[in-house]
Design brief:
With about 400 residues, the protein is α+β, with helices and mostly antiparallel strands. The protein has one domain (about 10-405): Cytochrome P450 (Cytochrome p450), CATH 1.10.630. The protein has 18 helices and ten strands. Strands 1-2-8-5-3 form a five-stranded mixed sheet. A hairpin with a 2-residue loop joins β6 and β7. The chain is globular and about 60 Å long. Bound molecules: protoporphyrin IX containing FE. Protoporphyrin IX containing FE binds next to α13, α14 and α18.
Length: about 400
């Protein structure tokens, strides 16, 4: 019998410091079995080389229907019917559908395209800081790290201003959903409201086309077989939710790391040109995406000598790979000048993050502006326990109260 690790990897308690557990796995059980909150078992993979291998491994499917037998599929719990359209997003699909969907949006997120948004991101960062500092102390998450990416992705997708605050709420419910019956019950009204809103937004763009990404996707749907109505809905949903919570965590976890390492904070203040390697290091060290989404074995196979059966669910522990000493000397040390820094925070292979250039640009402007404008920024209560969000894939703070000393 394979031993089940006695940890609850979705809980805020685990999220508060997962690294000792990861270090133990890398040392002795690099492929371990855990039980998720909904009772289902999953494999977790801890070492850098195995994580990188898994993310590129064609023997795994993202859509479980492509991995399991018809009999197995019939026995698996299904998400509520109302959520079914959301499962048609590219992250839960395999080629050729995955490639078809990805092609539709990829050019909206190239480095050149994203650089045209840098000026606007700078203006928004300054406005948020002006507003927050007028009150003295502020919450770095809810007053800055959350509204910045929400505004940028909402503007890209053409979401009207008064509607944006609701996304943070809906998206949080969706991301923290642990798929237990209780969690599904609690999140159901929010999910339904989110779906209703997305349908309204899509119809609105049909009626009044605008210069935004949602309109471009609506036109692609209307022009033929590029994507169907559910795929369109799922695309807007994944861009909206993947487009902000992750970047919120990059800014939040990144600033926490800097505030807990004042020497590195000062180093960046003195050398703002260090920002590119600094963001890569904050991506590695803070790992805003803690682990990959699920992959399903298409056949019986082995990872690092551990047999995995066809249909089993596997998660790549990105945050653990990012602290693997075999890849990163002194991995526990925050070093803003670290080079090379081949972290796996944006994944690898076919599902490598489409939004990486956007996230990097937003992170660069947000962190540099905070450090430049608020050189005396401090944690309000350095010894108080931090509040981490519940959930599987992401790792981020609920709040981060700060003061300007
Ligand atoms: C710091 C911020 C971000 C991080 C750390 C991050 C991380 C990731 C990771 C690890 C994956 C792959 C997951 C897997 O293979 O299981 C992924 C995929 C994806 N990300 Fe991001 N992401 C970030 C920001 C964004 C932004 C700003 C957007 C877009 C608006 C975005 C859109 C996507 C999409 C659409 C996918 C699916 C790609 C595919 O299936 O081909 N992400 N992201």
């Amino acid at each position: 019998m394979t031993r089940i690790e006695p940890v609850q990897i979705e809980s805020p308690g685990f999220k508060s410091n997962p690294h000792p557990f990861y270090a133990r796995l890398r040392e002795g059980s690099p492929v371990a079995r855990v039980k998720l909150l909904n009772g289902r078992p999953a494999w977790v993979v801890a070492r850098y080389a195995d994580v990188a291998g898994l993310l590129k491994d064609g023997r795994f499917a993202k859509d479980r229907a492509n991995a399991v037998t018809g009999d197995q599929l019939a026995k698996l719990p299904r998400p509520p019917k109302a959520f079914a359209p959301l499962m048609r997003n590219m992250l839960d699909r395999d080629d050729p559908d995955h490639a078809r969907l990805r092609r539709l949006v990829q050019k909206g997120f190239t480095s050149q395209r994203v650089e045209t948004l840098a000026e606007r991101t700078q203006v928004l960062s300054d406005q948020l800081i002006d507003r927050a500092t007028a009150r003295g102390g502020f919450d770095l998450i809810n007053d800055f790290a959350l509204p910045l990416p929400v505004t940028v992705i909402s503007e890209m997708l053409g979401v009207p201003e008064p509607d944006r605050a609701r996304f943070a709420r809906w998206s949080k419910t969706i991301i923290t959903n642990t798929m237990t019956p209780l969690s599904l019950l609690v999140s159901m009204p929010h999910m339904l409201a989110f779906l209703r809103y997305l349908r309204w937004l899509i119809e609105e763009k049909r009626r009044r086309p605008a210069d935004d990404l949602t309109t471009a996707l609506v036109e692609a749907e209307e022009s033929g077989d590029a994507l169907d109505a559910d795929e369109l809905l799922a695309m807007v949903a994944i861009l909206l939710s993947a487009g902000h919570e992750t970047t919120t965590n990059l800014i939040g976890n990144g600033m926490l790391a800097l505030l807990q390492h004042p020497d590195q904070f000062e180093r960046l203040g003195a050398q703002p040109e260090l920002i590119e390697p600094a963001i890569e290091e904050l991506l590695r060290f803070g790992s805003p995406v803690e682990m990959s989404t699920f992959r399903y074995a298409r056949e019986d196979l082995e990872i690092a000598g551990q047999p995995i059966a066809r249909g089993d669910m596997v998660l790549a522990l990105i945050a653990s790979a990012n602290r693997d000493e075999t890849q990163f000397p002194q991995a526990e040390r925050l070093d803003l000048g670290r080079e090379p820094n081949r972290h796996l925070t944006f994944g690898l292979g076919g599902h490598f993050c489409v939004g990486a250039p956007l996230a990097r640009m937003e992170g660069r402007i947000a962190v540099n502006t905070l450090v430049r404008r608020l050189p005396t920024l401090r944690l309000l209560r350095p010894d108080a326990p931090l509040r981490w969000r519940r959930g599987l894939v992401l790792r981020g703070l609920e709040t981060l109260p700060v003061i300007i000393s």
